[in-house]
Amino acid sequence: MFATEPVRVVAVSAGLSSPSSTRLLAERLAGAARERLLAEQDRPVEVRVIELRDLAVDIANHLVTGFPSAALDTAIKEVAEADGLIVVSPVFTASYSGLFKSFFDLVDNTALTGKPVVIAATGGTARHSLVLEHAMRPLFAYLRATVVPTSVYAASEDWGSSGDEYTDGLPSRIRRAGGELAAMITGGRAASGAPRTLGLDDEVVPFEQQLADLRLD
């Protein structure tokens, strides 16, 4: 009997404090993805959280010398070999942190091609939430990763909030993003209805018919 290879989910946290809300968000997203993966298939799931705070000096030395330490080399390889990736940065000056960017500058620019990725960020106020769309999503698009539809931003007031009639609470957004990551890892369609490539057997509905279906009786 052959051993079943585990699904590897790697979460990268660029939080600087300890304890860190950035690390907490990374862990909760990883937990949501793991829960969905275990529910949908019988392979074991391994979750690894990489704390960039612990690698800060190694990252700086690598940028200067071109040689990674053993710990940094292991972290880079784990990111490249992951089946699914979760990346979380605190917001600094309306963007991701320098530590976060420096780490991904060291990852080969083809290593993340096609890899499912959840992007997430933490900050003191909700007004910085667009960092996900104007900074993080373009970065991972450049790296040719496949970013899941749901990105997760956690402001200070989001922790413990159940949301309102207009906005889902943080736990709901975490579950949705984790589910989308799990679906992409297993080859399914993202839970939020992300577009997929049409196959030869898929029926193409004419645009005029789509419009007709939308008309009220």
From TrEMBL:
Protein name: FMN reductase
Entry EC no(s): 1.5.1.-
NCBIfam families to which the protein is assigned, alphabetical: LLM_duo_CE1759
UniProt keyword list: Flavoprotein, FMN, Oxidoreductase
Highest taxon of the lineage: Bacteria
Pfam families noted in UniProt: FMN_red
Enzyme category, top tier: oxidoreductase
Keyword check for Oxidoreductase: yes
GO MF annotation: an example: oxidoreductase activity
Record bears the keyword Kinase: no
